[in-house]
Amino acid sequence: MICSSSPKFVLPSGGGRGLRVPSLPDREIWSAPPEEEEGEEEEGEEKISVMASSYDSDGSLRGPSSSYPPSKKLTTSNYLRHVESMAKVPSGAGSIPHLNAVILGESLASEENDLIFPNVEFSGQALVSSPQKYLEMYKRSIEDPAGFWSDIASEFYWKEKWSKEVYYQNLDVREGPVKIEWFKGGVTNICYNCLDRNVEAGLGEKIALYWEGNEPEFDGKLTYNNLLHKVCQLANYLKDVGVKKGDAVVVYLPMLMELPMTMLACARIGAVHSVVFAGFSAESLAQRIVDCKPKVVITCNAVKRGPKVINLKEIVDAALVDSAKEGISVDTCLTYENPTAMKRENTTWKEGRDIWWQDVVPRYPTNCDVEWADAEDPLFLLYTSGSTGKPKGVLHTTGGYMVYTATTFKYAFDYKPSDVYWCTADCGWITGHSYVSYGPLLNGATVIIFEGAPNYPDSGRCWDIVDKYKVSIFYTAPTLVRSLMRDGDGYVSKYSRKSLRVLGSVGEPINPSAWRWFFNVVGDSRCPISDTWWQTETGGFMISPLPGAWPQKPGSATFPFFGVQPVIVDEKGQEIEGECSGYLCVKSSWPGAFRTLYGDHERYETTYFKPFPGYYFSGDGCSRDKDGYHWLTGRVDDVINVSGHRIGTAEVESALVSHPHCAEAAVVGVEHEVKGQGIYAFVTLVEGVDYSEELRRNLILTVRKQIGAFAAPDNIHWAPGLPKTRSGKIMRRILRKIASRQLDELGDTSTLADPSVVDQLIALAGV
Ligand code: WTA
Predict the structure, then answer these.
(1) Are 29 and 42 in contact (CB under 8 A)?
(2) I want to staple 528 with a disulfide (CB 3.0 to 4.6 A). Which of 5, 52, 212, 547 is the partner?
(3) What is the mean pLDDT of the chain?
């Protein structure tokens, strides 16, 4: 991929800086403080690859996006411009000029006629059966958002209806504080809508959750009635130990049925759950506990993933010691005994604080009044990585999130009541919140919760599960698709998979060869793939195919969901029309949008709304082809996407420098065959310390310990010095090129304070 460079425009990509665009002095807004004062900005840094040149249909190289015609100022009458082309069938993909979405060195331009039409049978039964039907609904959602979303919201239970003003929004920092509200004044409860409402509608005996354990012989199930009763018992217990509306509850559980159960119990009593992925380390858990000060922590003693037992309780114990040192002590640690992983007797225990779930929760009544909530009352907090070392507490509220997750789930997967749905994501991430728990349960769906690893006991496990439960909708991440693809078709073809109807992908761009394998081999060329682009911040799908409606292009997330107005802007914040590449923003709010960063509204505005005033800035790059299809090109900030997990480079750097032998570290992302991106760390040691294999291992261990195993660097590159400009800024462009061994593309190194550093680094590349 050839990257253009624009010396004026800088998106810094190194440790600890907010997004700054120094080339825009005319815009007052840029005087706002960056996220971290001490952050460096990179002089002479290249423009990130989203602005990369691309090829015209005749194969000739085209210039960067700045050469595109300047955009017109948009009026509300031309908002449909990016989807209008769908009213007619798009031209073939042979001429798609976009290479940016393509990873692993594939070239879309070589794919002739790569346009996959939904089969007639599927379209015939689909909720949205044609581009025209989509356009009709999309048009209404944009022209009359209040009416569109009110009609949908009315299908839920509201104790009191929302006020006349369905939504309020200010996304423009120049007009005052950013504020988004949907259905304010409406009184509801999301747990009630997931459970009681479905039970009342006659779904009491329908299976809500199937649980498949790590070991194939362990499984379980709960009907909507069972789940409601268990949620009520836990809710009663939580009330009994003093959890009240608005209190935070930290949840550190693996994929047991108790995880969604806990989320629902919190929601039932108005407590704000903060689920921490049970792969995060004690330090990371402690950091989150200190930030949100929970009344109770809920965990389990251990989990088995594949052949490995992970002692979760020890991690929680260590985190609670750490958080107590910071002045936050937690009185109650409710611990579920996961007997298939560890017996009680072997669990570390602190009398007075720790209590076994099984000893107390089942004693409580199976009914529990709900705590009614305003639509804008907080529902949950979920921490996510940003460009500084401190994770961001993304806050979602109740009513809009409810309506949005339910609706996106229904349409993007063409949900039917007879479906059996399996999303492989963990509830520790947003996908598990919106599309394992809330979205499907709000629709009365049957959901599979899988505790184990997809390649245990062998790489056919997923398809074994698909056949066992007759899964009809299967939603996963490209990293899993690639890793199973590598293991060969034999593991797939061994199973029938004939129950499958719709496939889904999330977390990173899915490269066309993985898309095709997923489509042809897993889905037997009959299941559409919903490649859903969205984020922790957006709450639900933003750009996604509606199966049955679209011809698909492998690797493209296609078109916006109802009510979403994606725009691509150039470095000046100008909307670019038609075929283009740029920064993906959204104008106008949608019900599922996050409302703030917990305790830091200023960071919310600085990170998401100041870079391009008037818009929500996603942090992603995007191309749009001449047919209006969207092609996500990855993060343009300091976030690496490893196996679909967001990790801030600054977080990894600060973990590395906490090692006493590490003087300085600079982390970049590199292409990785399975994970999408891998973590590549340049490390400068303190004077007098020698490189060694042991030190390399220790540095990796330090990151595992501070963040979690999923953030462990794939490479440590010894660096006697880092390439810095004369003003001391690290030039990450050069580091990225060295990391990916594109040594002939290093570009101009003459602005470096010491250009010989580059040769030293190259010499050490294999060490
Ligand atoms: C990336 C996960 C391309 C993107 C739901 C985004 C994707 C980040 C896709 C959010 C997709 C997610 N195609 N890229 N279908 N889905 N991403 O907050 O870079 O964990 O900004 O939410 O993942 O990650 P997060």
Answers:
(1) no
(2) 547
(3) 86
Distant-in-sequence, close-in-space partners of 548: CB < 8 Å, separation ≥ 6 = 118, 122, 123, 125, 126, 127, 128, 129, 414, 528
DSSP SS3 for 189: coil
Q: Which pair of tokens denotes residue 15? A: 């440790």
Catalytic (active site) residue 354: no
DSSP state of 69: P
- pLDDT tens digits for 187-244? 999 999 999 999 999 999 999 999 999 999 999 999 999 999 999 999 999 999 999 9
Structure confidence at residue 4 (pLDDT) = 32
- Ligand 1 near 641 CB (within 6 A): yes
Task: Answer whether 408 contacts ligand 1 (Cβ < 6 A).
Answer: no
Q: Tell me what pLDDT residue 649 has.
A: 93
What spacing in Å lies between the alpha carbon of 745 and ligand 1's midpoint? Answer: 28
Number of C-beta neighbours around residue 43 at 10 A: 17
- Residue 221 half-sphere exposure, CB side, CA atoms within 13 Å? 10
Q: What is the DSSP letter of 86?
A: G
Strands (E), 185-277: 187-188, 207-212, 219-223, 248-252, 272-275
Estimate the share of the chain in helix, then strand, then coil, as percent rounded to the nearest 5. 35, 20, 45
Low-confidence ranges of the chain (pLDDT < 50): 1-79, 84-113
Query: For residues 728 and 722, what is the distance between their CA atoms, to the nearest angstrom?
Result: 10
Q: Residue 590: CB partners within 8 Å, gap ≥ 6?
A: 400, 404, 538, 542, 561, 563, 564
Does any ligand 1 atom lie closer than 6 A to the CB of residue 646?
yes
| 107 Cβ neighbours under 8 A, 6+ residues apart | 99
Residues 6+ apart with CB under 8 A from 516: 554
Nearest to 126 by CA among 548, 565, 691, 632: 548
Report how far residue 646's alpha carbon sits from residue 151's, in angstroms, rounded to the nearest whole number: 35
Number of Cβ within 10 Å of residue 600's Cβ equals 17
DSSP alpha helix (H) spans, 426-578: 430-432, 439-442, 461-469, 478-486, 490-493, 512-517
Q: Does any ligand 1 atom lie closer than 6 A to the CB of residue 627?
A: no
DSSP letters, 611-638, are SSTTSEEEEEEEEE-TT--EEEEEESSS
Residue at 680: amino acid letter:
Y
Ligand 1 pocket check: which of 535, 623, 710 to mutate, most ligand atoms within 8 Å of Cβ?
A: 535
- The catalytically annotated residue of 414, 625, 637, 638 is 637
The closest residue, in CA terms, to atom 12 on ligand 1 is 507
SS3 label, residue 586:
strand
Whole-prediction pTM value?
0.86
User: What's residue 83's pLDDT?
Assistant: 52
Ligand 1 centroid, distance to 505 Cα (angstroms): 10
CA 423 to each of CA 164, 213, 502: distance values in angstroms, whole numbers, following the listed order = 37, 15, 12
CA dist 78 → 55, 355, 424, 570, 629 (Å)? 28, 59, 39, 19, 17
Task: Indicate whether residue 632 lines ligand 1 (CB < 6 A).
Answer: yes
Question: Do residues 735 and 741 lie in contact, with contact meaning Cβ atoms separated by under 8 Å?
Answer: no
Distance CA 291, CA 395 (A): 13
DSSP string, 646-688: EEEHHHHHHHHHTSTTEEEEEEEEEEETTTEEEEEEEEEEPTT
- Determine the pLDDT at residue 81: 52
Q: What is the spatial distance between Cα 58 and Cα 241, in angstroms, rounded to a whole number? A: 69
Contacts of 631 (CB under 8 A, 6+ apart): 98, 100, 101, 509, 555, 556, 557, 622, 623, 624, 625
Three-class DSSP labels, 93-118: HHHCCCCCCCCCCCCHHHCCCCCECC
Give the span between the Cα atoms of 54 and 63, in whole angstroms. 7
Please report the sign of the dihedral spanned by the C-alpha atoms of residue 433, residue 360, residue 291, residue 389: negative
Cα angle value 760/765/767 (rounded, 5°): 100
